[in-house]
Every structure is written in C-alpha cells, then in structure tokens.
Design goal:
- There is one protein chain.
- The chain is of the alpha+beta class and about 260 residues long.
- It has a single domain, classed as Chloramphenicol acetyltransferase-like domain (Chloramphenicol Acetyltransferase, 2-Layer Sandwich), CATH 3.30.559.10.
- Helices cover about 35% and strands about 15% of the residues.
- It is built from 8 helices and 8 strands.
- The strands form 2 sheets. It has a 4-stranded antiparallel β-sheet, with no helix packed on it. A 4-stranded mixed β-sheet has the order 3-8-7-6, with helices on both faces.
C-alpha cells in the first residue's frame, strides 16, 4: 500500500485570506466561492530554488502543411490554456501561509479561475508574442532567441511565474517558428521540463488539426490534478529505514563492486 501523503505537503483548500501571494491582492475574491485558492507547503529544496534556479530552453517548430489552421499567437494561447487545465501546476504561484515570509511559511498556491476572463488575464502574464524582438534582430531568429534567453536569465527577486512561454513567429512563410520556455526549477526538473514542452507541442498539434477552437472547460476540476511534492510522488522515505527497493539497489552495488574485485 502506498504511503499516505504528509499533511503538510498535501494540497489543501485555503480559508479566505489565509494565503498571501506577493504582488497579488486577493481581498476582492474573499467571498467569491468560484475562485478558491488551494495550497501546499514547500519542501526546503523547493523554497531554496525559488529565485535562483531556472530552466530556459528553446525549440524550433515547422507546422505541417497543409493544416486546418495556421500557427499563430492565438493558437499558442489556446494551447497553454488547455495545458493549464490538464497540468494546473504550471499556474501555481509562490506564496506564504503566515508572516514573516520565512522558508517554513513558503507555499505553492493555485487559484481556480472564476471565468475565461481570469484565464485570459493569466495568459497575458505567461504567453508573449515576441515579434518585436525578431524585427529588432533584423529577422535573425538565432539572435532573437539569444536576446530573449538572456533577458529571462536576469534575477527575479519575487519569483515570478513558474511557467512562461515566448513565441517568435516565422520570419518567412516557409520558415520555422521558435518557442522559448522559462521554467522555474522549484516546480520542474530536467525531465519535467522536457515533458511539459512535449505536452505543449501536443496541444499545439491538436489545435492546428481541429481549427484552433477553444472548447469549454470545467474549471475547478483541474485541482484534482495538482501534483504532490516530489518527495511524496517519488515515495522517498522520511526516515533512515531501508525499503525493499533500497535493499535491491544496495545489493546491485555490492554485486558490481564484487565483480570489479574479481576482475582485478
């Protein structure tokens, strides 16, 4: 039987006014039952990665031709909207469960959108059309990507969004489009970064094939998919007691060392 989640690291619906999110005024939503805030406490590793650890990567895409719809900024926003519903952790924010803002009070907070207007507001903060950078680079896509990557690498003392996508449209009808991803390491590890990029591309492909129409989504249900902390999902024991899996790994190491001694 899998171990029960630690209460401190489980997602919990917050009481009104219990969570403080920097640069956000949640007071207007205190009585809005359609926009509840969910939270879980951060591990020491997660809170320590908040400001300094970033994953910044880019990729080029060439949409199939012909397709039902051309790739453009609206398609990107629709893809990220669907991505948030399927994987709501990309819209989680850094917050505090109490003051002063110390590591033991650090939390991830997720606010359920009350309407599509709330989703559009969020999209405006995490998905950007960087045509202007391409123009300033005289159509040089490599230079445009380099400029955006450099800017994303600058320190952000407030943490900022954990997921940001910058879109650079193709410089010519038969050219490639570029996507530059910013992923906060407190939420994404290297494997997670590749996974979320792959999922984003999958959403883009689906929208291009179906005409890029937004379909209604039952916002609020996505909280069921808020992921547990890595120490929980990876089933890392909180004590020094060895598990059967640990014993198997240790035995494999012993066998390998013995094999080396025999060969020597």
């Amino acid at each position: 039987m899998p171990p029960a989640l630690s209460q401190d690291l489980s997602w919990t619906r917050a009481q009104s006014g219990a969570i403080d999110i920097p640069e956000r005024d949640l007071s207007a939503n205190l009585n809005d039952q359609s926009r509840p805030v969910w939270f879980r406490h951060q591990t020491a590793l997660e809170s320590g990665s908040r400001n300094g650890s970033k994953i910044i990567t880019s990729l080029r895409i060439s949409p199939p031709s012909p397709s039902c719809h051309e790739l453009n900024f609206e398609v990107l926003k629709a893809a990220v909207r669907q991505l948030r519903f399927d994987h709501p952790a990309i819209a989680s924010e850094f917050g505090w469960s109490a003051q002063p803002p110390t590591p033991e009070h650090a939390v991830f907070a997720y606010e359920v959108p009350g309407s599509e207007s709330d989703i559009d507001t969020w999209l405006s903060k995490v998905v950007f059309d960087r045509t202007s950078v391409l123009l300033a680079s005289n159509g040089d896509m490599d230079k445009a990507v380099e400029t955006i990557t450099y800017d994303l690498g600058k320190p952000d003392l407030n943490g900022g969004p954990v997921f940001v996508l910058h879109y650079i449209p193709a410089a010519s009808p038969d050219g490639q489009h570029s996507l530059v991803f910013f992923l906060n390491h407190s939420v994404f590890d290297a494997i997670g970064a590749f996974q979320i990029m792959d999922l984003c591309l999958s959403k883009i492909a689906d929208l291009l094939a179906t005409g890029a129409q937004r379909r209604p989504l039952p916002w609020g249900e996505e909280t069921l998919r808020l992921p547990p902390a890595l120490v929980e999902s990876a089933r890392i024991p909180c004590t020094a007691v060895k598990t059967p899996e640990d014993e198997a790994i240790i035995q494999n190491v012993k066998d390998s060392l013995h094999s080396l001694q025999v060969r020597g």
